[in-house]
Amino acid sequence: MTETSAAAQPPSGVVDLLGLLAYAELVSFFRLSDAAGLAPDLAAKGELAGVAATEYRHYRMLHERLAALGADPEAAMGPFVEPLDAWHGRTEPRTWLESLVKTYVGDGIAGDFYRTVAEHADADTAEAVRGAVSETERAEAVAVRVRTAVQEDPKLAGPLSLWARRLVGEALSQAQLVAAARPELAALVAQGATGGESGEGGGKGDLAAVSRLFAGLTEAHSARLEAMGLSG
Amino acid sequence: MTETSAAAQPPSGVVDLLGLLAYAELVSFFRLSDAAGLAPDLAAKGELAGVAATEYRHYRMLHERLAALGADPEAAMGPFVEPLDAWHGRTEPRTWLESLVKTYVGDGIAGDFYRTVAEHADADTAEAVRGAVSETERAEAVAVRVRTAVQEDPKLAGPLSLWARRLVGEALSQAQLVAAARPELAALVAQGATGGESGEGGGKGDLAAVSRLFAGLTEAHSARLEAMGLSG
Fold first, then answer.
1. Is residue A10 within 8 Å of A185, Cβ to Cβ?
2. Which residue from A190, B33, B165, B188 has the fewest beta carbons nearer than 10 Å?
3. Where in this chain does the record put each Ferritin-like domain (chains A, B) (predicted)?
4. What confidence tens digit (pLDDT) does each residue in B109-126 have?
């Protein structure tokens, strides 16, 4: 509840983006636990718990940043509970590999959003999220795990590629609802995706920019698929 | 995987006790997440995640200690998977308050076991578990939460007391199975409970000592019930 940074008013949309990420980390934390039953052994279960614990640290960091910016963290998260819960509800992994692919894809999208925060938020917030980005990038171990499994059993590539496509498809359809309901957030994120050419904020143009953002996300997603030995 | 302490052979039973606690922390971590759906609001959900993250830190610490003692951490946890899973399976909380009572009771029993480790293990291990004990004792905030709820609605005291009794009853019946299967562990824990008068290890006398241990646990449990404003 320090108010040191509250004086510097965050650009509209930044509080939204921090709230979105905070709830995303919190719900991922709990959802990762659902995958515990799919883990092939105790060591894998322990590693899964480690990934979840990292999500919790990110949640705490975002919660503190929101409070420092003078926002009510729970109020900031509120608008994103329904779309994120819906995404998780529609993408429940049925196998251990599906849960690894979901973790990697989800962390990747979160990483893209963290970078947007880092570009547009105050220096303290940018500094704080930088740690989350670097930890998110440690997820490379997960990609290696999937790639190894696919190399050992190439029949897995087709179903897992399809699964990854569904993960992103469901994310985009939830993102469209969020973008329509939160135009300032959409503007901010679109700005991040297009190097600042959107600008005005809140208008119809931003929804078009959001399409460009989605194109960008899809492109990043293709790179992530490749890292896992899958195809779009 | 350091082997600095591997030279000092741990007393028989210590590896068992560390394995038991390690799996207990790991499974608690995942099981706490199941209670997320019961949380009354986002802030409570966040606090629950914080408790789970602490359990994960304890799990990591125990895992590292087992490796440092030259034990295979997963092998050490193995014998306790079934009884601990069975306990959780028989004690699934149906309300938020039931999950708080379960957390407090479970952490309390874990704390008793940590103290036994601290008494009998090598200095490095004793030092490492001391941190876990002090964090476990921070659970007092949970007791205050339950006590406040019971003061506001005294009708809750009866059903929650019954619930707490069931938690311990189910724990004792699993503990009996474990004690019969792992006599060296039983001897060690009984020794802790009786101030060292059991001693010999592995015989029938230790099973009698285990009964005294259970009496001790039940006594500690009564004190914990009182802290929550409940009765035995």
1. no
2. B165
3. 12-191
4. 888 888 888 888 888 888
Instruction: Flag whether A1 is in a domain.
Output: no
**Partners of residue A50 in chain B, C-beta under 8 Å:** 56, 60
Give pLDDT tens digits for A175-214. Answer: 888 888 888 888 777 776 555 444 444 455 556 666 766 7
Distance (Å, rounded) from C-alpha B112 to C-alpha A73? 36
For the domain that residue B104 is a member of, what is the CATH number? 1.20.1260.10
Tell me the C-alpha distance between A160 and A42, whole Å. 24
What is d(CA B75, CA B54) in angstroms, rounded to the nearest whole number? 23
Tokens 């802290």 found at: B227
Q: How many structural domains compose chain B?
A: 1
Judging contacts by C-beta atoms under 8 Å, the chain B residues touching residue A65 are: none
Residue range(s) defining the domain that contains residue B88: 14-227
Nearest CA-CA partner of A216 in A202, A201, A198? A198
- For chain A, say whether B57 makes contact (Cβ under 8 Å): yes
Residue at B9 is within a domain: no
Domain assignment of residue A110, yes or no: yes
Burial of B218: CB neighbours in 10 Å, binned 0-12, 13-18, 19+: middle
Predicted ipTM of the assembly: 0.79
The verdict on residue B2 lying in a domain is: no
Cα A202 to Cα A130: distance, rounded to the nearest angstrom: 27
Chain A contact present for B56, CB below 8 A: yes
CA quadruple B202, B27, B18, A96: dihedral sign:
positive
